[in-house]
Design a protein that fits this description.
The radius of gyration is 34 Å and the shape is rod-shaped. By secondary structure, it is α/β, with parallel strands linked by helices. The protein is built from 16 helices and five strands. Helix content is 56%, strand content 7%. The chain has two domains: 135 residues, 3-Layer(aba) Sandwich (Rossmann fold); 213 residues, Hypothetical protein af1432. The protein has a five-stranded parallel sheet with strand order 2-1-3-4-5, sandwiched between helices.
Amino acid sequence: MNMIPGQRILFVDDEQAILDAMKRLLRARKANWQPYFASGVEAALTQMAVTSFDAVVSDIKMPGRDGFDLLQTIRATDQFCDIPVVMVTGLGERDLKRKALELGATDLLSKPVDNDELLARLASVLQLKAYQDRIKAQNEILEQKVLERTLDLEDARIDLIWRLAKAGEHRDSETGNHVLRVGYFCRAIAQSIGMDTHFSELIFLTSPLHDLGKIGIPDAILLKQGRLSEQEFDVMRGHCQIGAELLSPDNKGRLLSSTLFGRRGHAEPGDKINPFLDMASSIASAHHERWKGTGYPRGLTGKQIPLEARIITIADVYDALHSKRPYKPAFNEEKARAIMDEMAGEYFDPELYDNFLHIQKQLREIRLELVDNEHDEEQSFREKGLL
């Protein structure tokens, strides 16, 4: 049987004569096995903390902490738990043997230990450890590949989200980095009120989809330069419902996945709601609701409006005021602030707006990083003495 060069074995016994005998016995195996010796449990654990062992051979009966203590510690410690442990007991100690096996001993030897049997048992457990190590290494390689693939899929998912958001924006007058800026603004506002990483990252990804429903609005209305008629405005309001339906986590997509991949094509009790779609749909539906109930489509008031929708209302208006549009120039900070101050408490959640005002420097940096026309934006900042 081929041995793995350099496999380390720790022998634990309180009788030095037995340890010396083990040292003589294994001298001929030094090319393959590296023996280490400890006169008690504490000494053994001290060595195990600094040296990686492939097997442990321990007597059970020792003064102070005995072999069972050592075995239990090994099995309870992540660093050691997969090390094979051979326990040495007296010939007639059946109860001790049973307890050793119950505590996770890999093998048992009876005193007096037969040298040939000891070598054979050691060869067996070391081969087992070598197999375990190969499997563990292979699993780590597979886990790394799965992680890399997962990261690739996540990158593709995020890229698809941005492309989908840009598709909704493409037919409107809002161009450039509007959806990107809104995502960053929303995350900054969420973090300013102490929302956790999950919520902050989720709103960062979902908020750019707020106007996705505009892909269902006719060009004659969406691209009209003049004021919309009341009838036309009713149609325009419909983009909220269209977006909400497109993004609704209602599991209709299961029909396609079941056809392609043999999965279930219908919702069942216990099915989990997709948090991404849930928030995206909520934002699409409620991002035109207003704090005082004057918004649409449902006329929600105050905290009836989902938090994510209250956040994007501020972020979207902030970006619109600072951005150039076919129907307006980009407003400077003073004018944009004056307009938003008037809207606070009427359009905006007043507490959220207060937090928004405390992170102006951070929002300004995002705007500068993601400008549509870098020269115009920088010139505007310099005129205001902000650069």
